[in-house]
Structures are given as C-alpha cells and as structure tokens.
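step 4 of 6: structure.
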Amino acid sequence: MENFVFQNTTKIIFGRDTQKEVGRIVKRYTNKVLLHYGGGSIKKYGLYNEITGSLKKEDIKVFELGGVKTNPRLGLVKEGSKICGDNSINLILAVGGGSVIDSAKAIALSALYRGDSMWDFIKGTSKPSKTIPVGVILTIPGAGSESSNVTVITNEEGMIKKGYHSNLIRPEFAILNPELSFTLPLYQVACGSADIIAHVAERYFTKTKYVDLTDRLCEATLKTIIENAPLAIKNPKDYNPRAELMWGSTIAHNDILSTGRIGDWGSHKIAHELSSLYDVVHGASLAIIFPAWMKYVYKRDLDRFYQFAIRVFDIDPCFGSKESIALKGIEKLQEFFKSLGLPVTLKDLDISDDKFDKMADKTMLFGSIGNYTELQREDVVNIYKLAG
Amino acid sequence: MENFVFQNTTKIIFGRDTQKEVGRIVKRYTNKVLLHYGGGSIKKYGLYNEITGSLKKEDIKVFELGGVKTNPRLGLVKEGSKICGDNSINLILAVGGGSVIDSAKAIALSALYRGDSMWDFIKGTSKPSKTIPVGVILTIPGAGSESSNVTVITNEEGMIKKGYHSNLIRPEFAILNPELSFTLPLYQVACGSADIIAHVAERYFTKTKYVDLTDRLCEATLKTIIENAPLAIKNPKDYNPRAELMWGSTIAHNDILSTGRIGDWGSHKIAHELSSLYDVVHGASLAIIFPAWMKYVYKRDLDRFYQFAIRVFDIDPCFGSKESIALKGIEKLQEFFKSLGLPVTLKDLDISDDKFDKMADKTMLFGSIGNYTELQREDVVNIYKLAG
C-alpha cells in the first residue's frame, strides 16, 4: 500500500425529496446564488420551479446561467465567471450531472481570479488561491463530480478537453435524490453507468501491491453497478436501483477507492479525444475505449485481470487457463456495456480510422499517459485500432 | 435505502513515517497541546520522544496526561478537562487506540463546558456547544475512533459504560502509521480485529431493504479483515496486513458503510457490561457476545444470515438448507475469533452466570436495545446464557 492523505469534506444529503431542502441549506452560506444548469430538462419536469421556489422562500437572490453542454466549454465558464464577479455572487448551485457540476467548479475557480480564465491553471501558468463554494443538486448518476475535487473542461480553441484537480473546488454539499434521475433518457443512464464502472476500474488496475481492502471495495462497487444498471434501465421509476447507481456514482469517485493505490487514467484520456472531436458522450466513449485498453494491456499483470474476472464476473476458475479467464472477464465487461445499449466499437458510432493519428497526438499533448502501463503515442494509436 | 446525511471531515494521513509530520500538522491549529496517552508503551518504544521532539521543533508547548485505561474513565476525563481549562489548551493530541481517543474526545467535550462534566451530555441534561479539536496518532487498529463521531466512557459511579455521539468531536486529523502497531501484544491485535468485524457486522445486520452497495462494501471489509488478521498475528512486523487492518479499522467505523441503512448495535451494548463489570477488553467481549447474538436472532431474517455465510465465508450454497448455511456462517465467525486466540464463551474467561441479571438490568438502563431485532431484558439474559 502507498502512503496517502485522504479527506473528503463534501456533505451528502441523500434521498427522497431532499432537493426541497435546498433553500434552507444554501441560506447557511449566502443570500445570493448562481443557479447553473444545462438544457431545458430541469424546467420540463418541474425541478427548476421547485428549486427557485425553495431558494426564494429563504429570500435568496437567484442569478441564472443555463446552457451547459456535454463536455462543458470554457466559453460558458468565462460567462459564468463574469456574472459572479459583476454581482458579488458567493455560491454556485449546479443542478444537473457531471458536465454542469464541472462547469460550476470551473466558474468557481475563475470567479475570483484576475487573469484570463481557469485555463491558466490547467496550463500551469498560474495557481488558484481562492474560490467560490459550489453546491450540487445531482440529476444524473455517473461522473461522480458531486464530491470529487476535479473538473474537466473543453477549450474551444483547439477543442482540448482537460481535467484540473484542486481541493478548493470540492463541493460543499451535494443533494442526491435518485427520483430526480427517473426522467433521464435511458441512454444517459447507460452512459452514466459506464462512467461509474470506468472510475472504479481506472483505480482497480494498479501496479501497487497489497491493496486488499481497496481491491475488494472496488469489486463490491463494480458488482453493485453491474447488477443494478440493467434494472434501472428496465424499470426507470424503481427507486431502488436508481439509488444504488446514484450512491455508487459518488463512492466510485470520492477517492475512498483509490486510497493507498495509484490508478491509471490512461483510458479516460484516450476516451476524451472521442468526446472533444466527435462530441461522444463521456460514458459512451469509455464503453468503447476501456475494453480496448484492457485487451491491449492485460498481459502486464495477468493475475490482476484474472482476479477481476473471477471476483467481479464470477467466472469459474475451472473455465480455462489464467489468460483465457482474464480475457473472459474483459469480454464480459464489453457484453455488459452492449447490454445497456452502449456502443462498444468505433464502428458502432460510424467513426473511421482517419483521425487516429490526430487523436493520438492530442492525447499525448501533456506527455505520456497511464500508470498501470505507461503509454506512448504508438500505444494510443493501437488502442484506437483495437476499438475500431 | 433510507434517506441519509453523510459527512466525514477527518483528514487521514496514512503510511510509513507519517507520525514524524505531527509537529508540522499540529502547528496549523495551535502552539499549545495536551498530549494524551495510555500506559508506558509509547515511551518504551520511542514514540513519545519522536512526537514530543516533532512538536517542540515547531515551538509547540506540550502538556501531558497519560494513564488512560481500557474502558476509559470519567475521572481522568475531568482531570484532562481541568488541565485544558487552566492552561487555555486548544488541541488534544491522542496517541494510542480507541480508549485514548475516546478519552481525548470526552475531554474535548468537557473542556469548554461550565457544568460538572460531559456525563451531563450522556444523561441528556445538557448539550455541548463548543469543543476543543482532537488530533490522533493511532497505534492500535480496532475501535475506529480515529474518524468517528462517538466516544464511549465509563463512569466510575456505578461503573456505567455509555457512548455519546456528536459531530463536534470527530477528530480534525488522524495520523495512521501501521508500523506503530508492530509492537502491540498479539492479543490486542486480535481484540482490535474482532472490534472491526463487529463494527461492520452491527451495520450489516439491518432491517433496511435494498442496500446492495453498502452490503457489498461491508462484505468486502469483513473479508479483508478475516484474511489479514491471522497474517498480522503470524508476522507482526509485516507492514502489509497491518496496513489492511489499520485502514480497515477506519473504514469500518467512518460511517460510509452505514449510509442508507439502520444498524443494530445491541451486541455492543450487551458486550459493554462485560467490560464494565469484569474489565474485559472491548474486542474480546464482542468475540463472545456477537456470535451469541447471531444465534439468538438469525431466524429474524434468514436470507441475510444466508447471504453473510455465502458471501463472507464462501460457504457453498449446496452445503445444505438455508438455515444450516446461515448457522455455518455463524460457526465460521466464531471459529475465526477462536483462531485469533480470543475467548468465544464466558467460560473461557471464567465468568459464571451469577451476574447475568444485574448485567441485563444495566444493559436496559436506557431502554430497549437493538434495531435489527429489538431486545428486552429477557432477551439479553438469554444471550448471556447462549454465550455462557
């Protein structure tokens, strides 16, 4: 086990009707809030009225910025930052999934910054010293951004998608009501589930030896998602599987599962290029790339892939050789993604091989990637080919 | 799944040599500290010098209070509280296991209180409003007090042992170096392991339905402890199993595993009476009482005990009837405790049945106990008999 420091301060308020408390909760921080959201769905299903009603009941002045897209853009972050600055806003309330929360975190980073934008922090030319707190009402389980310390932003100049870590942007509170996910398109539920799986798996595939507890906690989370995601898609209004997915999304990414171990995150970076070039939803890009990455690297530590197959997919150890069991585990994961209605190859999205080189170049923009297996440009091209 | 609020703010600093950072860490809070510890072991093995050296290097003034016993007493808490008050101390550094940390938390509760002592809070005649922060250097994995919001104190008047919960006493930071547990008596390692198991199991046995993720996280933690405790006892200087036990101790009791479910805690209360009357080490009392409790209540929800047997002890589902499998799981747990060198019956400690009535009376002092199964006085006597 590696030495580590772990602290996750986000207050989770989980369960039915919890969004109705938002006014009371926000009131502890401020009487002026930026309500940040995506498209029209929060208005369509009444959530917008419920939230603004609860805030206004507590005499909280509400500023608004909607329009966050999948793979949130720096342009909108700059706009939000200006609204916060112009109006001395001191809490951003993100209502949505990972994209909205990431956008809110990026605004929080920029709002009190005198330079150009938070992209300076990503480039490393400056460091944030102060942020505005972020609160969350989660509607899409998946990204785990509700209690993580990371934001992933796409810069329209060059369409570069990149993450930034800082404990300054970990949300103060996150309201998680699984009922708010009932009206999601089923494809989005599937994408979110793939994202949860990938967050755990990026931590699971590690070079660190003797990490029994976190291995088993990872396997526990994977098994829960694998069992509940199909149920959540089959019965969209059944609270129970939605609750497992929503809490699973947070657990997968609140860093408990990575304590004492170094994750890989290569697949995430390779998948990001599908999103930034083709606007593929993050979870869908992972459903394509993660199994391809697994096939490319499994020989690096056969024991770990064997353990994954045996413990997560209950493959019978008598099934065959260690390698065939390891490969069976990868196949099972790919079948699982497929069963959720997700693409599992680039062909499924009509993406040809003509931009593999460009995508690999962009993946390597900030140097070699991965930790479980360090990957160079050529490896990345090979993984795109395996995903073809 | 039940609605819940979860927040655990303790900063964990985990790994080799981390205690050497204590001066630098404490300095962020204060320049005056009460160093609180138990017997002489921290002096015997050099830890005392290491800590005081690190604190003094940062010009931190160190006051001291040693002498915390297993099942920490209110008398010493009052003494600590007076030292803090007299010297305007504003951080208590607990160096030890659960007893020392619990004692430090109780001092933290009392130090700024103008009434008699923190026992008023336990009685419910008063409520704490302000506390002194607590920091921890953990030497014994087990109690999980290093990041929990609870303290268990024994009042010498009537030898009443009772817990008190408050987020005000959750430690600010906890330094966890598994190497500091290398010199522990092996019996103490065994007791700590039983305590970890019981903390998870008290959460696992719940009436709450559809708690897949936390069920599996509990099972993951149990399996890890069951695998690693024997190794930690066999090879006391092997870092790896000690690290699994130490992080397992925190995970078992930091409340992640109880999110969305209501635990039982009846066994803890029944076991407390063995400690307060016979001064049995907490973990040993649980190794006796928990299996007895299981035998008494398993019919309440056979499916859950069956699941425990199958998933935690890998009992073959073909072993026999659901009931026989459930019973096999209980037997396996008892065998496990025995294999660690723990007592598993009251006879093993030469405790006869002559005080069962008195113990049951004291257990019920604050009303009926348990949630998975609510227990009355007669049930408690029966459980003592089963443990006989």
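step 5 of 6: annotate
 - The longest strand of chain B covers residues 4-14.
 - Chain B touches chain A through 40 residues (CB under 8 Å).
step 6 of 6: archive
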